[in-house]
Design goal:
- It comes from Mesorhizobium marinum.
- Keywords: DNA-binding, Transcription, Transcription regulation.
- This is Short-chain fatty acyl-CoA regulator family protein.
- By secondary structure, the chain is of the alpha+beta class.
- It has four domains: about 10-65, 434 Repressor (Amino-terminal Domain) (Orthogonal Bundle); about 145-280, Arc Repressor Mutant, subunit A; about 290-430, Beta-Lactamase (2-Layer Sandwich), CATH 3.30.450; about 435-470, no CATH class.
- It has 17 helices and eleven strands.
- The strands form three sheets. A six-stranded mixed β-sheet has the order 7-6-10-9-8-11. Strands 1-3-2 form a three-stranded mixed β-sheet.
- α12 (about 245-255) packs across α13.
């Protein structure tokens, strides 16, 4: 304590006011001048060890109280002010510290109010989804971050961009890569634009997958990435250069509301274009039919990852040669939904993707294994779902690897066109719901939340199997 300056003005002021003392009275009790106490309370002077001991002796104050930890409260306040409604009012760190220290009760009340607001916003969103599924859409909306706006646009439209497909096919024909697209792209970048591609060790690029240095005309790739991911990064960079006008046109067609949203959309569309370049439409459509949409077989055939092959299957919706209308969702171990796309838009109303019984959650218990399952929705619709974990960049010895899981789904009527359908013949469909808040299945052992459409059952004489009983 002697080696560290302690500024605890707001806490001392609060202690003084709780005891009903004036600055003059407290200064007299501590044996210091009122002007010095005033400077301490305004954090213009640190408190000394002698003063801390005096405070403990005269006012029975625990010295630890003067070193109260405010980081947790400040972090919670940062979350409050990061909401889109308050993003323009975000104070600096010092202002948040002052609020947390000077008015801790008010800060706690603000956090409670924010949690209640978030809860109500989630309930309104659930009700809006329920009404939309019944054909009674509302105008309920909430302020959204640019990333939320972009995700919503991509989730609600087909995951197929005809102009990008045509540009990718033209580019692939120009490259004539044979069996080595990676080498062809590197040669094209160097010959046409003077850009060299160079992998770098993780220690040199600790935070990046890819970095393009415009000054030295070098594209750096992290060695953490698998060969398939390195190929996608190079293909994405090449598409950003070669297909700039087409990308700009597709972004404009999305009618996004901000420059930040348009930048994020351009990035996602460049990833789409890179994947289309790696797996040309005609070739992958033909191979998918022959392999009966076996994702692992397609990944091996085109030298891509399981996730890349699954995502490409969703995009095979060209009018003249459409594939199975798949949809795809990616989640992490905490259940956060990171990505949702669909051949006809992600099926929010009919499927939702928020049921705890989905095989995508079970996949984490058996990493790398492909799980296939038939499920049945409350309205009787049946779906074929395929789930598997996917690993992120290579982690170091002292790092926790990134692992997520993807779920690939389609209507069960397409089961005979897939290699997964035969495995489901003798297995009855698993009953699921769109999300616990919208599901009225009684006695569900996996229920995580009560439905918003039914009142809770509070019968003291009866306890149901679900964690939340309802009438």
């Amino acid at each position: 304590m002697a080696d560290q300056k302690i500024f605890a003005g707001p806490r001392i002021r609060r202690m003084r006011m709780e005891r009903g003392l004036t600055q003059t009275a407290m200064a007299e009790g501590l044996g210091i001048s009122p002007s010095y106490l005033n400077l301490i309370e305004r954090n213009q002077r640190p408190i000394t060890v002698q003063l801390i001991l005096k405070l403990a002796s005269v006012y029975a104050i625990d010295p630890q109280e003067l070193q109260g930890e405010t980081r947790g409260s400040v972090a919670a306040l940062k979350e409050v002010f990061s909401d889109p409604l308050l993003a323009g009012e975000l104070p600096g760190d010092q202002e948040l510290i002052d609020l947390a220290e000077t008015a801790p009760n008010a800060a706690a009340a603000m956090q409670k109010l924010f949690r209640a607001y978030r809860e109500q916003a989630e309930r309104l969103s659930d009700l809006n989804a329920l009404l939309a599924g019944q054909g009674r859409g509302t105008t309920l909306s909430a302020a959204r971050l640019p990333v939320d706006e972009v995700s919503d646009v991509f989730e609600r439209r087909p995951w197929h961009f005809a102009a990008l497909e045509e540009a990718a096919e033209s580019f692939h024909g120009e490259l004539a890569p044979g069996d080595d697209l990676f080498a062809a792209l590197k040669a094209w970048l160097r010959k046409e634009h003077g850009i060299s591609v160079r992998p770098l060790p993780a220690a040199t690029m600790p935070n990046w997958r890819r970095r393009y240095d415009r000054h030295s005309q070098r594209l750096f790739l992290s060695e953490r990435l698998s060969r398939a991911d390195q190929l996608r990064e190079v293909a994405m960079e090449a598409c950003l250069i070669r297909m700039g006008e087409v990308l700009a046109s597709e972004v404009a067609a999305l009618k996004l509301s901000s420059d930040e949203a348009r930048r994020l959309a351009r990035f996602e569309l460049a990833r789409y274009a890179g994947l289309a370049l790696m797996m040309p439409y005609a070739a992958v459509h033909q191979a998918a039919g022959r392999a009966r949409h076996d994702v692992a077989v397609l990944a091996a055939r085109f030298g891509v990852s399981f996730e890349q092959a699954a995502t490409r299957l969703v995009s095979l919706q060209r009018t003249s040669s459409a594939g199975v209308p798949f949809f795809l969702m990616e989640i992490d171990g905490a259940g956060n939904r990171l990505r949702r796309v669909g051949a006809n838009g992600f099926p929010h109303a009919a499927f939702g993707g928020g049921c705890p019984k989905l095989p995508v959650h079970e996949a984490f218990a058996d990493p790398g294994r492909v799980l296939a399952e038939a499920v049945e929705m409350p309205d009787g619709a049946s779906l074929l779902l395929v789930a598997r974990t996917i690993d992120g960049p290579q982690a170091g010895f002292d790092e926790r690897p990134r692992r997520t899981a993807i779920l690939l789904g389609c209507d069960l009527s397409f089961r005979d066109q897939t290699v997964y359908g035969a495995a489901l013949a003798a297995t009855p469909p698993t009953p699921i719901g769109p999300a616990c808040r919208l599901c009225e299945r009684a006695g569900c052992l996996a229920r995580a939340e009560p439905p918003v459409t039914r009142p809770l059952g509070l019968d003291e004489m009866v306890t149901g199997l679900s964690a939340f009983d309802f009438q």
